[in-house]
Amino acid sequence: MPGPLVWDQVGERLYETGVDHGVLYLPDATGVYNTGFAWNGLTTVTESPSGAEASPQYADNIKYLNLISAEEFGGTIEAFTYPDEFAECDGSAVPVDGVILGQQGRKQFGLSYRTQVGNDLEGTDHGYKLHLLYGCQAAPSEKAYGTINDSPEALAFSWEITTTPVPTTGYKPTSLIVIDSTVVDPADLTALETILYGAAAVEPELPTPDEVIALFPVVLAHSAPASSSSSPSSSSTSEN
Question: Which residue, 4, 36, 111, 194, is the most exposed by fewest CB within 10 angstroms?
Fold first, then answer.
């Protein structure tokens, strides 16, 4: 029903916080992310889209139109540690266990992580969002080793990442998908998490955008039932 806008109603004061359930995915020779590894110690993932800048065009002494540049997605990953399998994504090679070579090729990877969605009633138990990243590549990053003192701090690793979008049927290629647990069907979400995190006899993997979308079918509204006051059948006859 139409009515005036109302702000800050109970249960509608939403916020996002935290990051957890990080998973690194490595692609096979065909580019399928069919191997996943738990990423412990994840502290921050900063999403940094860029591009989509306006380029005004003038004609007839007026602003004729705006051309928008392509949008790109990048970000920063910060963590106290990382999976051993991330080494080849960070420009390292391991010819022998315990021996690491730097300045090697950098392999693409996929990433998933979870952020909490809270509100004023349930706090962070309200729900969460799954973030899926595709076509990621990490740039070289510095590591500052400091002496141990009376205020010790753990070394924090940080990587700038860029992405190469992957095809998505019916849409432009994308590097990011976000799934909101407070909106999607719980059973469909469970099916996705089983794929992302694995299960008994199921290896964790990162499904393609098309596969993710297919897990959440659109629920169509049911047609209105036929009216009970329909006209009599043409086969019926009236008595004289």
Answer: 4
Tell me which residue of 75, 85, 101, 102 sits closest to 39, measured CA to CA. 85
- Output the furthest CA–CA distance in the chain (Å, rounded): 109
Nearest to 79 by CA among 40, 32, 135: 40
Other CB atoms within 10 A of residue 195 CB: 18
pLDDT at residue 1, as a whole number: 64
Which residue from 8, 14, 36, 13 is spatially nearest to 116, judged by alpha carbons?
14
123, 140 in Cβ contact below 8 A? no
3-state per-residue secondary structure call for the chain: CCCCCCCCCCCCCCEEEEEEEEEEEECCCCCCECEEEEECCEEEEEEEEEECCEEEEEECCEEEEEEECCEEEEEEEEECCCCHHHHHHCCCEEEECCEEECCCCCCCEEEEEEEEEEECCCEEEEEEEEEEEEEEEECCCCCCCCCCCCCCCCCCEEEEEEECCEEECCEEEECEEEEECCCCCHHHHHHHHHHHHCECCECCCECCHHHHHHCCCCCCCCCCCCCCCCCCCCCCCCCC
Phi, psi values for residue 73, rounded to 5°: -120, 130
- pLDDT of 173-217, one tens digit each? 999 999 999 999 999 999 999 999 999 888 999 999 999 999 998
